[in-house]
Amino acid sequence: MWPAIINWVTGSLISQITAAYKAKLAASNETERLIADVAIKDIERQMADRTAAKEIRRATAGFWEMRALTAIIAGCAAMHFALVTLDTCFDFAWNVAAYPKPFDEWEGAILLSFFGVQAIGQGVSAIAFAIRGRK
After folding, report:
1. Which of 33, 72, 82, 133 has a CA positioned 20 to 30 A from the CA of residue 89?
2. Which residues contact 7 (CB under 8 A, 6 or more apart)?
3. Which uninterrupted H or E stretch holds 60?
């Protein structure tokens, strides 16, 4: 159960890097080892990118400008999503226009990044607080 939770929280990067190291160890020739090395380097780069993004969010979280920008971006995306949902479900005939390409494909990712990641972070924090409280 714990490996599944860790994979879910980390986006399965740990299981990917474990599989890449296993592939490297099981490689029978130099080509397979090089392919495994490239996969390992790519996963390590992804992990470094996530760490850097987290540090940037932490460093800029206290600035009112960043909070205002976040509120505007999330507010616009959430309002558009709500208007499309209401117009679709209740047939108000508002004819809410879709975002232009390629932004229309990013709307869901933007909403998930703001609301999904925050909810996961709060859940993990609550679990960690509960574990610390037992000791």
Report:
1. 72
2. 14, 15
3. helix 30-60
Query: Stretch 108-123: mean pLDDT, rounded?
Result: 67
Specify the higher pLDDT residue, 7 or 97: 97
Sign of the dihedral defined by the CA atoms of residues 62, 68, 70, 74, in that order: positive
Spatial distance between the Cα atoms of 53 and 120, rounded to a whole number of angstroms:
16
Closest CA to 107 of 126, 132, 134, 85: 85
Q: What is the mean pLDDT of residues 93-100?
A: 83
Give every CB contact of residue 74 below 8 A, 6+ residues apart in sequence.
110, 111, 114, 115
Give the DSSP H or E segment for 10: helix 2-10
2 residue type, one letter:
W
Q: Which residue has the tokens 């933007």?
A: 110
Place of tokens 């980390």: 10
**Token pair recorded at residue 76:** 């616009």
Write out pLDDT tens, residues 45-94.
Answer: 888 888 888 887 787 777 788 778 878 887 887 888 889 889 888 888 88
Q: Structure tokens of 60? A: 């800029």
